[in-house]
Amino acid sequence: MAKQELLPLLYLSFLAALVLSCYSHERKVHIIYMGEKPQGDISVTSMHHSMLARVLGSTASAKELLIYSYGRSFNGFAAKLSDEEVARFSDMEEVVSVLPNSMLKLHTTRSWDFMGFNQSHVRDSHGGDVIVGLLDTGIWPESESFSDEGFGPPPAKWKGTCQTENNFTCNNKIIGARYYNSENQYYDGDIKSPRDSEGHGTHTASTAAGREVAGASYYGLAEGLARGGHPKARIAVYKVCWVIGCAVADILAAFDDAIADGVDIISVSLGSSLTLQYFEDPIAIGSFHAMRSGILTSNSAGNDGPLGGISNYSPWSLTVTASSIDRKFVSQLVLGNGQTFKGVNINNFELNGTYPLIWGGDAANVSGHQIPLSSESCFPGELDSSKVKGKIVLCESLWDGSGVIMAGGVGIIMPAWYFNDFAFSFPLPTTILRRQDIDKVLQYTRSSKHPIATILPGETQKDVMAPTVVSFSSRGPNPITLDILKPDVTAPGVDILAAWSPIAPPSVYQHDTRSTHYNIISGTSMSCPHASGAAAYVKATNPSWSPSAIKSALMTTAYAMDPRKNDDKEFAYGSGHINPVKAADPGLVYETSEEEYINFLCKQGYNTSTLRLITGDSSVCNSTEPGRAWDLNYPSFSLAIEDGHRIMGIFTRTVTNVGSPNSTYQASIYMPNSLEVKVDPPVLSFSATGEKKSFSVRVDGPEITMHPIISGAILWKDGVHVVRTPLVVYTVLPSETFPNRSLSKRTQTSDLKGSSRIFG
Prior knowledge:
This protein is α/β, with parallel strands linked by helices. The chain is about 20% helix and about 25% strand. The chain folds into 4 domains: about 25-95, Peptidase S8 propeptide/proteinase inhibitor I9 (Alpha-Beta Plaits); about 105-325 and about 470-565, Rossmann fold; about 330-460, Glucose Oxidase, domain 1, CATH 3.50.30.30; about 590-735, Immunoglobulin-like. It contains 18 helices and 36 strands. Strands 17, 18, 19, 20, 21, 22, 23 and 24 form an 8-stranded mixed beta sheet that branches. A 7-stranded parallel beta sheet has the order 7-10-6-13-15-16-25, sandwiched between helices.
């Protein structure tokens, strides 16, 4: 055969080999999501075994490779599959989506009082029939925050269980606890039980529903009465997060159980950094089925700010960003020349005098064959202990302090990130300074023959700028549905004191061996349980309210935030800062029915056959054409305009009277002059509680180009209540326009591993 003829064949063989190599024969855990659970007396486990056996060709292999069979609240299963088997499942008509078992990441004494939600409201709140379910790292059951003193037995609706491995016990406060580990892998620090070895789950649980505990503090800092949003609520724990992260298969298993167990509110302080379609996102899937069962899911918005996009943006869940409270932690540095610098940091140590000061760049470790890389950063192994021991070290990078500890230093000075609006805690005396102050300290260190310094013990100061949305909090807009404003609200998430696992590190240094029962950390993980606790309080006050009614109440009564303090405006804080007291009596609520969500999904590009799998009923998409989401009965208004086009949009909404039977509300409009907004009708009169009234909002304006956000609000007032809904207008590029890309059954291949201890 001539060489010219051989080359095309070799090329084709190469392509064939390349295609085949795309299919890995190594089996990994994947989730087959099939929508709503089947009606009637059907064994979903048998159904899943049968499907697996068809694909695998063996009943024995099917039983061996099945990890979870989801069937208590929705339909699906997790199994170990090869890429070829994943592709076969993806082509099945009865499958909605196939998800890899990716690892998602974990996203007080003062915060509740700061919101005006004081102890009198807690004392006057209703009893302990509300159950808050938390998907997190578990819980430390012996914490005082979870004492069941004065609690009776769990409510009759509770159908959960308590897994008691490794000496774990429940009580009448913690009424249920489960743990999940689909990969069956445990690392140093993991405990095979619902017990929390990370601290994160204990912190979020006590923030949402912890008992009142007097004298709580972090080594004496922030001492006061610690309590959750609804201390009378019961707690159900679903441990889905471990040292390595939070597996998708475990998250879905926890949702499946929590819904069937009978929880009222689900709190999820974790999420993905990927942009996923709604039914390829495990939290969106779980919270959708929770909504169908009358359960509100409260989600953290993510810690990828200030430029990173928002997580957990499904319209049926509550998305919460993190904002500051009127307390900040500072630690002062005093130099030998009398100069004093104030750093933002949690420092519970006392140096008792001055110590020699050295710059990390002057203490490079050059022993043996080691080549110093950047000793000024003070990374582990880069400092010479003979030069550092007994000294305070000035470092050029923000790190966990491990390099200075290893070299025998007694204190550390580090620069803040670009934003210095939240505090860290470290295992040795530390202060975090602004970059310009670091330069001044370095100048003193180089100019003085014997530079000395001391770091003073930490203290708290009043933050007069609070509340502002913290820099790390992820921002909107909604990456999937531009017509739905996300986030929904903001809540305290900066420097929050709450219960902690005593075996978890109490600082950012993972080998910190100290022990504490309360810790101060920051993150949208901390703001989410604040909203969850507030939702539990509203649910206890109004037991019959739907998830959308509770969500609406929290949104329409939120404190209006100051846009001068938050450049991203509603993309940073949504409707505003939660106000639990007002939320219990909002006057009007925007209730969203399941049918409305179905119509919304149709306009997002989902077809009838897929929707019927999701809902398990005869839902129909009346239109095959995608459309705008202006008629979803959402408690905010978002109008995305293609860049260079005129502003125009018409929204329809319906409100339900939950206040006085006979009441009349008048519309007030607060908008920039560039927008013309008309509310029709401008007056709504009610004659009964539960009565519904509809209205429309028409927005017109000039052509706009590259405008990040124009915002205002529509308020309904009856003389007692103020029902506020934000309205935002912003431009998008043609490539970002609506509504959605074509939706196909496909897998997401990105793998998100690890958890964020620093941000919570």
